[in-house]
Design goal:
Number of strands: 7
Structural class: mainly alpha
Strand content: under 5%
Number of domains: 4
Low-confidence stretches: 1-26, 112-126, 234-275, 297-308, 336-342, 630-653, 658-665
InterPro entries: DUF1631
Pfam family, one: DUF1631
Number of helices: 25
Mean pLDDT: 75
Helix content: 55-70%
Length: about 775
């Protein structure tokens, strides 16, 4: 990772590559605190540098819009004073931060207010100036502490651990209060009007206080890797009167830590995943490098000409942040009021052109251009939404809906560079939540338009209400996730019923197959009366199914039921001697008892039972005669007015016929390409699939359950209703023929960034290929 330069506007994740060396710092408090001090001075000074790099533009913009010459002169004087004192203020800011670490180590608190070096001013003027400054600093500190209370809580606990003192926001050397007071002391060097001083504080709030999110994440990651409370998951009490912070994500309710106070309604802090944060920062760094390369690589002939946008006008001053945001706000209002969902794809391609045109109109000039950094941001957001509008994971209607967020997200990216560097950025989390909910959407599964209308409501709220308050994204996320959780619970109940019903059918089918197999083994190719064959293949097979479902195949009831079938088959065979007839006489009472119990279990009609017993009585009387016939089929049967029907007359109710009606066997797995079989076997429960039928209609469904009996895959829609069940072979065949598509599980923003990096790399390689081919061989 390259070192951070003083002029680098983009936050970087602290270098944690030397984990093994840092791991022991948790046992060396002084060294751990020194690491914190070094990183804090470097990062906070860099944020202050960003402030001053933007101060000129802000003051110039205010001067150009001043109502009179006196006010304009104030701002121009302020510009000159800031330029003159900038280095002194940056040096003193760093010095004050360093001194606060010394005071912290010694147990002293933060300096409450700056020293007064303007003795010649009147007491009332000094008090008024100090009051205004104090209010400005107190306001930005309170706002930042409320916004970042969870991550601050973690830092305070870790600093307490290494300093052997109770650390709170008021005495932390890196807390918002410490940073704010250090700048207040440092900015005392400025000799400017109060109005200009307050403008500087507003810029400080935006560029320094607004950049503390990433800085605190880095500090927590640094301390985690140093072994300081690496597994901490603690609650933090909410300040009286402060707004409730965002709730923890599902499944993140942490156990309490002994010795830490908890409060009702407390929220959890989950330690930063430092490895993931560094990977994300590296990805963003790669993106910026590729974009910068695009500007510098020029034409394919190797001339080195700089990348120049089509609308670039070298005679026009680049747009400052205020002008960009004003132009975007106007476009955003137009987008909200006039754009239909179907127009989203076209808007993504012309946002840059429209933005520069709108900004030129605001200036009253014929054209406009932007700085390299802002142009990269505009292009990056454009590529993000181009990806969204082509993402196969999203249905076309939802692509168009989310595509309408391009201009608000461009504003977010210009206001806060963390959008592409932090997975936890509120705007990014909201977009990922919307996209995840939309993956399973289809018109068929959303006939009441409940999800579609909610997504549209969220999108239109952003378009209508978002100016520069990033908190709106967190508020909308909380609202949407509450809606999604309610619908998810409903879907889970329906899904549970669908899987239970399928599981029951699977068990029944398996039990029927087992019972049919056992009966077939006993009656196939055996000479016996049709009545006995009918008895075993119909009511007794049903009894076997019930025993299997209730007691299983290892139960005594199952063994007794099979033994009865064996005894019954033996009992109707011709009896050739007295011993066989004596044995038949002995077993008949038990056979009758078992038969009556089995028939009662399957609710066999009592009248039919009596008729059956009469028929059996005639049959066995004949078998017990010494001169019994040798062929059982020749035994005379009792003539009944309503005999039991043969299987062919009522076959639909029999186990045997139900097996015969099963679907023909599928192709063997060996006949398919192994890669498709492997792909199906790697599917996990929760994976979304898009099915394509013969008419070209598409339906999205989630893999809900894989049968341990038949290995069938059950799919449900977003409401939990069954869509299909497929065997492994069917799914592999459908995959091979393109009738199903497996949708990706990676969050939308991450997928988009990966795709953009690959796109930029491919473009760069394609442009450089002719140059490499034309270069002389060495």
């Amino acid at each position: 990772m390259r070192p951070m330069s003083a002029n680098d506007n983009n936050p970087k994740v602290v270098d944690l590559n030397q984990r093994s060396a840092a791991a022991s710092l948790g046992e060396k408090p002084a060294e751990a605190l020194a690491q914190v001090r070094i990183h804090a001075l470097k990062r906070l000074t860099a944020l202050a540098t960003t402030l001053f790099e933007n101060a000129d533009d802000a003051l110039f913009d205010l001067a150009s819009k001043a109502d009179n010459n006196a006010v304009q002169a104030q701002y121009f004087d302020g510009m000159r004073e800031v330029r003159k004192k900038r280095q002194q203020i940056e040096a003193r800011f760093q010095e004050q931060l360093a001194r606060q670490f010394v005071d912290f180590a010694a147990g002293r608190g933060i300096v409450a207010k700056p020293e007064n070096s303007n003795g010649e001013l009147s007491l009332s003027l000094v008090e008024n100036t100090e009051l205004e400054e104090s209010l400005a600093v107190a306001s930005m500190v309170a706002k930042t502490e409320n916004r970042l209370q969870r991550v601050l809580f973690a830092i305070n606990q870790r600093l307490s651990h290494i300093s052997n003192q109770r650390v709170e926001d008021t005495n932390s050397p890196v807390g918002p209060a410490a940073v704010g007071q250090a700048f207040r002391l440092a900015s005392g060097e400025l000799e400017v009007e109060l109005a200009v001083r307050l403008i500087i504080y507003k810029l400080f709030d935006r560029y320094v206080m607004g950049g503390l999110d990433q800085f605190y994440d880095e500090l927590n990651a640094l301390l985690v890797h140093a072994g300081v409370l690496p597994q901490m998951r603690a609650t933090v009490a909410r300040r009286p009167g402060s707004p409730a912070p965002p709730p923890s994500r599902p499944g993140e309710a942490p156990p309490s830590i002994p010795g830490l106070e908890q409060a009702e309604g407390a929220n959890s802090y989950v330690p930063v995943d430092a490895v993931a944060a560094e990977l994300q920062a590296n990805l963003y760094s790669s993106l910026r490098s590729l974009l910068a390369t695009r500007r510098g690589e020029g034409s394919p002939d190797g001339s080195g000409a700089s990348y120049v946008p089509a609308t670039y006008n070298p005679n026009v001053m680049p747009l400052n942040p205020s002008e960009l945001l004003s132009a975007l706000s106007m476009l955003q209002n137009q987008n909200f009021s006039a754009q239909s969902a179907a127009e989203s794809a076209q808007v993504a391609l012309r946002v840059k052109e429209e933005l520069l045109g709108q900004a030129g109109k605001l200036r009253g000039e014929n054209g406009a251009n932007v700085s390299n950094a802002d142009e990269d941001t505009i292009d990056l957001v454009g590529m993000l939404f181009e990806y969204i509008l082509q993402d196969r994971n999203l249905p076309a209607q939802m692509q168009a809906m989310l595509g309408r967020l391009q201009i608000p997200f461009l504003k977010v990216a210009l206001l806060d560079k963390h959008l592409f560097a932090r997975r936890t950025h509120p705007a990014r989390v909201l977009l990922d939540s919307l996209a995840q909910a939309c993956v399973g959407w289809s018109e068929e599964s959303d006939r009441d338009h409940r999800l579609y209308d909610k997504v549209r409501e969220i999108v239109e709220s952003v378009l209508k209400d978002f100016e520069d308050d990033l908190g709106i994204f967190d508020r909308l996320r909380v609202d949407f996730e509450a809606f999604a959780d309610t619908n998810k619970r409903r879907a889970e109940l329906a899904e549970q019923r669908a899987s239970e019903a399928t599981r029951g059918r699977e068990k029944l089918t398996d039990a029927r197959r087992t019972a049919a197999r056992e009966i077939t083994l006993r009656i196939e190719n055996r000479n016996m009366p049709d009545m006995i064959r009918n008895l075993l293949s119909r009511p007794w097979a049903n009894y076997l199914v019930l025993v299997l479902l209730r007691q299983g195949d290892s139960s005594d009831e199952w063994r007794h039921a099979l033994r009865f079938a064996d005894e019954l088959v033996w009992s109707v065979q011709p009896k050739h001697n007295a011993a066989e007839r004596e044995r038949l006489t002995a077993v008949l009472p038990q056979l009758e008892k078992t038969l009556r119990h089995g028939l009662a279990t399957v609710a066999f009609d009592e009248t039919d039972v009596r008729r059956l017993m009469l028929q059996l009585n005639v049959l066995y009387q004949a078998l017990l005669q010494p001169a019994a016939p040798t062929a059982v089929t020749e035994v005379p049967m009792l003539e009944l007015t309503d005999p039991l029907p043969p299987p062919s007359q009522d076959g639909g109710d029999t186990v045997m016929s139900s097996i015969a009606e099963e679907e023909p066997p599928a192709l063997p797995v060996e006949s398919l390409d192994e890669r498709w079989v492997i792909a199906v076997r790697e599917l996990k429960v929760g994976t979304w699939i898009e099915f394509l039928d013969d008419q070209g209609a598409k339906e999205r469904a989630k893999l809900s359950w894989i049968s341990p009996i038949s290995s069938k895959y059950l799919f449900v829609n977003r409401k939990g209703l069954k869509v299909a069940d497929r065997t492994l072979v069917q799914l592999a065949s459908d995959l091979a023929e393109g009738r199903i598509t497996v949708l990706e599980e990676v969050p939308l923003f991450d997928r988009a960034l990966d795709a953009i990096v690959e796109r930029l790399k491919s473009t760069h390689a394609a442009k450089m290929a002719p140059v490499a081919a034309a270069a002389p061989a060495s």
